[in-house]
User: Fold this.
Amino acid sequence: MRVVVAPDKFKGSLEAADVVEHLAAGLRAVDPSVEVVAVPVADGGEGTLDAAVGAGFTACPATVTGPVGEPVETEYALRGRTAVVEMAQASGLVALPTDEHGEPVPDAGGATSRGTGELVRAALDAGAQTVVLGVGGSACTDGGAGLLQGLGARLLDDAGDELGRGGAALARLARVDLSGLDPRVRGARFMLAADVDNPLTGPRGAAAVFGPQKGADPDTVERLDAALAVFRDRLAEALGPDVLEAAAAPGAGAAGGVGFAALAVLGAVRRPGIDVVLELTGLAGRVAGADLVVTGEGSLDEQSLGGKTPMGVAAAAHAAGVPVVAVCGRTTLAPEVLRGAGFARTWALADLEPDPRVSMREAGRLLEQVGADLARELPGLVRGATPTHPAPATAGAPDQKDQ
Assistant:
């Protein structure tokens, strides 16, 4: 039997590669002859770098400016002339300093995306001509101003002085000077891996929807939204009216507005994160000829149906005529919905351990138990499963988390 195991991370518990390892251990404990093909994946946010490295990219270390100005040690991934930059690594919530309880300390108005721009520059230094920007998990709401600063742009106030970091400072922006922007940007191809369709400003904009997740109270949200509008207008003065269209485009509000800078200045093309990652990992080719595909994530819910990892993997399995099952920490979906989404069987760790704290803490052990159960059912799943067409990727709500 050949089983492809292609899950996303179980957030707050295990990375995708760890999920694969524990499921594989359970499978092999019951049937050592099972061939497990490990394909850890992600939806374009946190975990995208690990998925790329698992697919054969090389992790390249870099030291960049963190979200609150302190240096952080991070990585980008490179294969040939293609680089993968995961924003969370440089400018994300996970890169924030932590309090005495180990919880990140947000800085809604002052956090910057500069480190992401510095990572892009490092990738260009290494010869990258295509750069994939995975933008989930950001800590900032600066419209991508920091991203541009990391690539050589200057943001100036009325006195001609450089602005400080963060979205709040954009309220004082008088002029955007792009003369120092890295010239290699014009010759590179940028891909924005982002699922959200929010514009830059307004009631569905970066500040209003995602600011509270980054510690912004209502007053800060209002000030950040106004500051982003100033940035939009000053950038339009520098580049022309197409900037205004970019600000209103779907995805401009992704990652605190980094989507806007990527679209307006880098000329990025936005694509669903899961589609980008599945291409990077070559999942379609690895699924071909398999007996079963296993996917999953921490919470299998309505947002999962909106085009997140399990649905993308299920679609690839269906296209190859291979049955697919799902493993998750918990699910809010009814069995008939899961079957309609194309899953022949679904295991939830919550069914084995109802206490969520214990389930998260002991996810590895529980996944090995699921892997063993899966191995026992494997012959029946392979013989008896008739894959159904997965539900359309638009069936659920767009992902509104950690952007």
